Amino acid sequence: CVLCGRTDDCPEKYGEKRTYVEYNLTVHYYCLLMSSGIWQRGEEDEGVDGFLIKDIRKEVNRAAKLKCNICKKKGASIGCVAPKCKRSYHFPCGLQRECIFQFMEDFRSYCWEHKPVQQFTDKEPRGASPCTICLDLVEHLPAYTVLKSPCCKNAWFHRECLQYQALSAGIFFFRCTVCNNKDKFQKEMLRMGIHIPERDASWELEENAYQDLLHCYQHCDVKRCLCKKGRDYNETDSKWEIKRCQCCGSRGTHLACSSMKSWEQNWECMECRSIFAKSGNYRKRKKNSLATSEKTNGTNCLLEEPSPKSPRQSSGSPRNFLLQSPKIMCQNNLSPCSHLELPASNRVTMSLSPVISNRNLSLMQKCLREQRREVCNILKELKVQVKTQTTRLNINAENIWSSAVKGFRQRNFSPTNTIEVSFSNCKSGSKTNSFAASKRHFFQLLMHHLQNSSLFEGSSGKNLALDFQAVKENLYFEAGKMIAVSLVHGGPSPGFFSKTLFDCLVYGPENVKPTLEDVADVDVAQTVKMIQYANSLSSLQSTLQDCCEFLAAAECLRPVTTLCDKNMLVNDILTYHVIKRTIVPLESFRQGLKTLGVLEKMQMHPDAFSSILCHKPERLSAEIICDLFTIHSSSDVNKVGGADFWMSYLQDVESGESVVTLEDILLFVTGSCYIPSIGFDPEPTIKFLRIRYPIGKRFLNCLELPKTKTYQQFKNKMEITIRNTLRVERE
């Protein structure tokens, strides 16, 4: 090693020993990390993990002038950081002399006199106890070779055992072996010189380690399977991928057969749903479940959603629906809307006749579209604040929340700057995606994470949850800020707010009356139901006696003299549990939403913003995609039917007669599988050119299509190009 001069190859002690023949250089990784006069000035793939070769040469020359205080030889590149301490030493010598090397922050080193030590009180039990890793006895002494757990009183370890455990488990799995604490334990171990590598656990990196566990149930059990290749057909990363029941895993469905998106995981079979319903723990589940049949007006009516990629059509219905009016579509049971467009808190199955249901949904669809156009214009007004000065966010897609919080809190971040996103764990991302596409993908991942995070609770229409750690770290403010920035910078809208949460944000919590549907806690909901449905004063008083501790904690304990007092009591419980209990997170969340003036616009235009915050985005259809793109064509395009081929292809994709989906087409052109609330900038266009295959120019949102003589040629080229391009990107 050019820094310590030793030939030892012991990764557990000195880190990986690396040799670079082209530079005539050999170095221990830990020797390089801990050297006092070198910094990581390059990218991760430059030099030695970001340490430039010329910087390493300079550090070797600097160390050559320093004598090690332990072995008395030259080349001591590591110095003690204690003030006025001038000791220098090699890394192996420091280990031998029991120095402490902190593998965090500035990678500090402390000599044997100034090293940090763990505090031992007089009350500490003396003697010996088993090391919870190797199970050999460890003496309870303040020694370098002994470490105690910061979170458990009776947990003692050998330093060597802890170091081996950390190298094996990595940063994601290294924790206290007694209480499973991670944050506090890792912080103390890093302080005491344990190196925790930033990688996955060794058992997770072993290839095919869990191959025997990968034999999964693969069969579509929906009453009417839409797949032409049969119920056992399973193709990953497509609408014919089979998802298993999240509860039992012994029932399955194709994504298309239950109207699911590829990232959705919350599907349950009918058997599990019935068990939940009978146990009283089932309030309202997500919309995707096995379809069941019900008699309506003497006909079989399947209670399943039409697939967003292959909508059902009534028998004999014409396929050129792009020319049909919404009224005709409702009469033909071809309404482009579904109960996805209902408010998130009201997505329940309707027992209306098909015609009446479709008519109401069509009117709601029309109203929502108008409101979303209004929001689009409002957000464009807010975007005027965004300057051309850029802020770069380095995002790790596997740890989206932590990297997003870190990016939003960095010193040079400003919501009025143009945001550029670079995915640190995707080496080819910047080559295949524009910054706009990467930014939209980042905001999509972020909104999906927020929806399923501990900051919110509820099944579909969500309210704020009470997370004390999140309050302490001010994460509710960051969540509100991220949603505001996403809306203005071209990201997706959340779409999962409950009406109660939205009203609290817009009108103030003091003017909102929550309902039983807003209670996510099953036990609290059951208590409220027992009070609400008490049919006599004695049963009411008995119920109150059983839950008096809960009522006292909620400050709702009051004398009840008449049966009608239960209504006021129920209102008090709901107000406490949904609003008063979360008043601190709510205020912090509101402050975050004030970013870029979003909350102010929400309060000025509540109906418009409700359409994007409380409703899921409208399902993509051939009509929507057709209206989204502007066709730039010459006269000879019409001769070969280019525009007609494009519309016919969209109809084939929507009806399930294609291997790609409408989302795939949008992703191919724009880098996004959704339409942002603010719209695309620039607006998507189509050009017909004399080229062999389609080209999606994401930085221009432009789709260049080939001129072909027949529709089948056009379709084949579209399918091959889009499918292969997206497959390569996924890989």
UniProtKB/TrEMBL annotation:
Principal subcellular localisation of the protein: nucleus
Compartment(s) of residence: Nucleus
GO cellular component: nucleus
Gene3D superfamilies membership: Hect, E3 ligase catalytic domains, Zinc/RING finger domain, C3HC4 (zinc finger)
Annotated region (Disordered), positions in chain: 286-318
Comp. bias regions, Polar residues: 289-300
SMART domains hit by this protein: HECTc (SM00119), PHD (SM00249)
Keywords of the record: Ligase, Metal-binding, Nucleus, Transferase, Ubl conjugation pathway, Zinc, Zinc-finger
SUPFAM superfamilies: FYVE/PHD zinc finger (SSF57903), Hect, E3 ligase catalytic domain (SSF56204)
Pathways involved: Protein modification; protein ubiquitination
MF (Gene Ontology): ligase activity; ubiquitin-protein transferase activity; zinc ion binding
The keyword Transferase appears for this protein: yes
Residues covered by the PHD-type domain: 1-115
Protein name in the entry: G2E3 ligase
